[in-house]
Amino acid sequence: MPKRYRVCLIGCGRMGATIDDEVRDHPHSYLWLPYSHAAGYMAVERTELVAVSDAIPEKVETIRQRYHVPSGYTDYREMIEREQPDIVSIATRPATHAEMTVFAAEHGVKGIYCEKPLCGSMEEADAMVGACEQYGVKFNYGTQRRYMPLYKKMLEMIANGELGDIHCVIGHCGVGSALWGHTHTSDMLMFLAGDPEIDFVQGAIVAKEEDWEDNRLNTDPGIANGYVRFKNGIHAYIVAGGGYEFEVSGTKGKLRTLNNGILAQWRRVEEPWHILKEVPFPDVQHASGTVKGIEDIVEALDTGRETQGPVHLARRSQEMLMGFIESHRRGGTRVTLPVANRSLYVGRKDW
Question: Residue 350 in contact with residue 227, Cβ under 8 Å?
Answer without folding.
Answer: no
